[in-house]
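PT: before anyone asks, these are the final sequences, not the draft ones from last week. 1396 residues across everything. Please model them as a single complex and drop the result in this thread when it's through.
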Amino acid sequence: MAGARAQAATGATRGSGHTRVLVAGGSGYAGALAARLIDRHPAFALHAVTSRSHAGRPLSDLYPQHRVDAVLEELDLDRHGDADAAIVAYPHGAAAPVVAQLRERGVRVVDLSADFRLRDRATYEGWYGEHGAPELFGAGVYGLPEVYAREIALADLVANPGCYPTATLLALAPLARSGTVLDVVVDAKSGVSGAGRAPSAKTHFVAVDENVTPYGVGAHRHMPEIDQELAALGAQVTTTFTPHLMPLDQGEMVSCYVTTSEPWSQARADEAYAEWADGKPFVEIVAAPPGVRGVRDTNVCSICVRADERTGKVFVFAVIDNLWKGAASQAVQNLNLMHGLPETTGIEP
Amino acid sequence: MAGARAQAATGATRGSGHTRVLVAGGSGYAGALAARLIDRHPAFALHAVTSRSHAGRPLSDLYPQHRVDAVLEELDLDRHGDADAAIVAYPHGAAAPVVAQLRERGVRVVDLSADFRLRDRATYEGWYGEHGAPELFGAGVYGLPEVYAREIALADLVANPGCYPTATLLALAPLARSGTVLDVVVDAKSGVSGAGRAPSAKTHFVAVDENVTPYGVGAHRHMPEIDQELAALGAQVTTTFTPHLMPLDQGEMVSCYVTTSEPWSQARADEAYAEWADGKPFVEIVAAPPGVRGVRDTNVCSICVRADERTGKVFVFAVIDNLWKGAASQAVQNLNLMHGLPETTGIEP
Amino acid sequence: MAGARAQAATGATRGSGHTRVLVAGGSGYAGALAARLIDRHPAFALHAVTSRSHAGRPLSDLYPQHRVDAVLEELDLDRHGDADAAIVAYPHGAAAPVVAQLRERGVRVVDLSADFRLRDRATYEGWYGEHGAPELFGAGVYGLPEVYAREIALADLVANPGCYPTATLLALAPLARSGTVLDVVVDAKSGVSGAGRAPSAKTHFVAVDENVTPYGVGAHRHMPEIDQELAALGAQVTTTFTPHLMPLDQGEMVSCYVTTSEPWSQARADEAYAEWADGKPFVEIVAAPPGVRGVRDTNVCSICVRADERTGKVFVFAVIDNLWKGAASQAVQNLNLMHGLPETTGIEP
Amino acid sequence: MAGARAQAATGATRGSGHTRVLVAGGSGYAGALAARLIDRHPAFALHAVTSRSHAGRPLSDLYPQHRVDAVLEELDLDRHGDADAAIVAYPHGAAAPVVAQLRERGVRVVDLSADFRLRDRATYEGWYGEHGAPELFGAGVYGLPEVYAREIALADLVANPGCYPTATLLALAPLARSGTVLDVVVDAKSGVSGAGRAPSAKTHFVAVDENVTPYGVGAHRHMPEIDQELAALGAQVTTTFTPHLMPLDQGEMVSCYVTTSEPWSQARADEAYAEWADGKPFVEIVAAPPGVRGVRDTNVCSICVRADERTGKVFVFAVIDNLWKGAASQAVQNLNLMHGLPETTGIEP
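LR: through. Structure below.
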């Protein structure tokens, strides 16, 4: 089969696209999945996949399930800098310098780290420390296509949102835009892949199995990102946000409990969400509270809104796949927009 | 081994207690566990285990893991009515008439259903329909030993709390008593055993595995129970309460986000919780947010309180085993109190 | 989004194929997945999806994750009999009459049941009872493309293999062809989706979670199918076969321990397997024992062979996704062959 | 609650036993569980719990669920050498020198490592390398109480069996004693706790979840131990043994496929197993193949034997909890025998 696949890779699949996309940082879950999505994409070709720690190893050693015929390489701008675009999947802080170098070569970048998401530098430094490419700070467009599609289409540097902000902002956008949001409590639940591929006491099977645990209580890095973007949408709040680790691999749910300045009826909520979702191919408004399983391995965000008469609050439940819409496939969605393609290309649900 | 165990059962274990306890409704998860706990209890003897649907079958057919040498019997008050006490594990509505019959015979009862938990009859009827023993409505003591130990000691009818109310009330008691609670959001997560033993589309492994789903949104039966008891403690609120089904078998977490009328410091929170927990053998105040795994197969409730400066809210995370502290072992704790025993007898953590 | 998807369905996706494929029995896991695969297939169009028990309901009510815009219909040969081909996903026994009716109308059929897999009628009746369409008994081609590709291409009725036989035969084909097999022990492990969608005590989450249980010991219906096809390949054996239920949803492993009439070296094994796999796009020969996770949601079978010097036996470990290669995607692979398409069309790994 | 528990520890629980037991190596799963079982044991007192890597930390930091009030200490023979007995839970190789030192002080030892299990030194060295206390090689009694109870009662050094040998030998003892065993295939399945507490790529939740993988194929260290003890029982075979990693935490199943020199009827099998199990409090012979869940958190081994007419083989399925009967509770069972106590003391099922 190796032969058949190699041929397919050269022929129909990898060579079919004219736009060469580099994946920098392909040994993590998100980077590896990005490599797979690019590898199968009809308009993109996988230029190279790099890894600092695993250079020289076939990507399929680490991720046999992705079936991508590529050997991880040390990043070398002389060889890789002629890519048309790049998805950068480096840790926070380490990403910025690489992004800067790629931008210097004219490579259009979607960056999966937090380095270009925040607009306030003091806030960034408070949560992440010194920035790795200060000259580019704030130069990125926030890559949530359902909000910033036009800006993304014109951008050379897109900051892919964090997984929790993605789900939370999609869940709350129609409410935030209404200007009626007073208080937001977000109780989030995530599968273990969100914690990354590095083995640790917290990701050991025995620690996670039959368990559920809150983490990052009062101090999760996605908080300022959520607040920044909720404010941009129209809700000036300090969000209560607590994620919980769950015994599953992929999938993320945000359960949002929103206090508003005026009562919302179910009809108003339904209308606001339907109108907002209209024309957005990856947003599904559903009547029954969704499970994370329903969006596994897709770029879809399913959302259920409930105006709760009993408490007067509005509840919103949204689910995404943290590795897909929360990372890799959203990066492809952004790349599609940046290259004038239908945003569903290669990531149809 | 059967012989050895039968001997043990007659000798050291089942015959050792002088108080004969009937378990009525032993084919469900909670009833079966109650039978096991009574079977091993040093002061109680298992009088009989009844089941309407599985009479005639050994309990070990349904629950080999419990290793209780008992055959499920049809409930027969002539034979079973001479028990000293009973744990009734019938469904809501069906429990009340059985409880009434047992009380007529002078049997002291801990009832696991909701039939005697609520104090307002209209509220009961609104959520559960007509009551099955109206003459006894309101006659039960609410069986949360950490709050009502004295009343339970004197009671002949104890209404064992629901699993979610148990966790929520233990989590919030010190706050509620302070009189400063303005608003409560409880996001709850439960394992599948909470949904009962009956197979259904919702409890099918494939539906639950790799999934998390909200249920009972805006309409869960534990809501009025939580509000009633929070009010009794000092917090007059309409609680926002949403449970989620999680891919694990036993375990329940409540994540509580509380708005108060005045700011709480961490020091005040620590002091209030430490003071409240003092002398309560099953309440653990812990510094780091607990996982449900840490209380599996115990009667313990672990609680972490955080005064969150950023939002001004107080967060409380509490975990229990829904089948133990949320049902069967709490029933034994109540029986212990009713019989003047140390409340930890037979259920030491 | 509903609008966008409906348009896509009419346009690019569902209408793009000229061959109309009926899925009869679309409410089970395999039938629903088959509907999804046909719906996205570039050369096939989904003609209709039928269900006896759920007619009238949108397929997405039962399987939101498949995102197929189709309403389940009662099977009506007047309306559905003009399909070009059909995948029949009925239970054993019930399938045969439906297959017969479809064949009368000239519809080419891939049948997922066991009704047309066995060649010996007494054997069939011994395991399954009376046959539902005796006139067609034995008329099907055994639909294992890696063995019978030519016959499948010409067939009008293909009997899709059982999931365990699929994995076992692919694992053992090179050994069986060598004529050296004396004894075969197959220890199989399967996820819960293999037990079907009907809720039962055995598929309840709490029964499966943290558990592993053998089932069908000494009496699993896949035994005669395995023996029949191993004999056809060259190994006349009575296979020892025991499946085990595992706490996962999709995935199946067969661990095969083979006694041979002459010693096999690792070199001979490697060569035999490499040669046999050559040109088979869904067979992967791997050096390290594979996990079921590596083939999830694919039509791939990964196989590792080990000539074990210590015991003199040959070990073979093979993994498939029981719903894909073990059922629905193998049906599509068969349909591809029947329609002269590359066998990977629409199910590329 | 801390106060209540501390009191309990000093009073009823930890001080209640007169025999002081040291647990050396208490940071791993088995050592920590051993500490818990000793802590609750009516006849033993927990003398100390040591750890090289975590000295100074409360055991409850690592294992809150065990609720043992003990601080891990550096092993110091001057302070710890006056224990009456010790459970040593060190890695293979590292255990032997510690065991030797404890024996010099007169401490009776149950060793959980493989260092004293094998009787042939060349075999030991071939699998484990040089022995850490050659003068003691072979001095241990093989600690399988169901076979060597008398020898254990008199021993000062007991080698606790490996988890797989425990299950396999209990499964096969009656067959092995018959002298009719010709060939044995053991397909084993284990939960992740068997792989130990150290985080690694293989124990990462995402690697194990929804997966099953064979490991140690053809080269697992438990092989020589199984063969040695099967021979001692009467079966001179080279066992085919392959373990598989399963997505669960505790639990182990061995599925044994045995070829015999003469046919076994079910009646003969039933009689042989019933006779053998008679008087063994932790051996359960069951009619239906057991699941691992049925023995979770117990010292029980459940065994089902099937004389399979179709193949002429005898199948035996046995389940244990790998951390209990496969390690910690079996060590306590051995200690009970060594101290003249009923073997069920403190570990009643």
